[in-house]
Write a structure and sequence with these properties.
Layout (H helix, E strand, L loop, with lengths): L9 H41 L12 H7 L2 E4 L5 E4 L10 H6 L4 E5 L2 E8 L6 H29 L5
Antiparallel strand pairs: 1-2, 3-4
Helix pairs in contact: 1-2, 1-4
């Protein structure tokens, strides 16, 4: 019966060592890159909410600044991040979402339930996150390709 025998040469051991090294280092490298990309994206969202237009006769309540302060990057245990919004007051939790709606939102004017005010809508959060998706994909693909190239180089393989 014919046989085909493969005997591992030194390049196999080099590739095996490169794979072991990548196996140990890649998750942290990938996670670090995600975290590096997330903070500037959160910063863009903060700047966008602060820059939202207000009616010319409206006084400043600091609301947009407080919404911006609530934008945070949270690292999760599965190697990713979440960019979230929060407000310190429980009755204000809906405000970041309300400001992000295309149709806008209504609220009592300075808490007076006899007078309601309609804010126009702007996508300051979700649109910013969607705009950042392409950069995330490119940068994380680069991390994967760099790791694959390191493994191939260890074995002397040409791409």
């Amino acid at each position: 019966m014919p046989q085909f025998v493969i005997i591992a040469g030194p390049e196999f051991r080099k590739v095996e060592a490169a794979l072991a090294k990548a196996d140990a280092a890649f998750p942290e490298k990938f996670r670090n890159r995600i975290e590096e990309l997330a903070e500037p994206l959160a910063g863009k969202a903060r700047a966008k909410v602060i820059g939202l237009p207000t009616p010319s006769n409206a006084g400043s309540t600091g609301l947009r600044q407080r919404v911006a302060e609530g934008v945070a990057v949270r690292v999760n245990g599965r190697g990713g991040v979440r960019i979230t919004t929060s407000m310190s007051e429980p009755d204000e939790r809906i405000i970041p979402r309300g400001l992000d709606r295309a149709r806008g939102w209504r609220h009592p004017l300075f808490g007076n339930r006899d007078h309601w005010f309609a804010n126009p809508g702007y996508s300051w959060f979700m649109e910013t996150m969607q705009d950042g998706q392409g950069e995330f994909e490119r940068e994380l693909t680069d991390v994967i390709e760099d790791t694959a190239r390191d493994i191939a180089d260890a074995g002397g393989f040409q791409p």
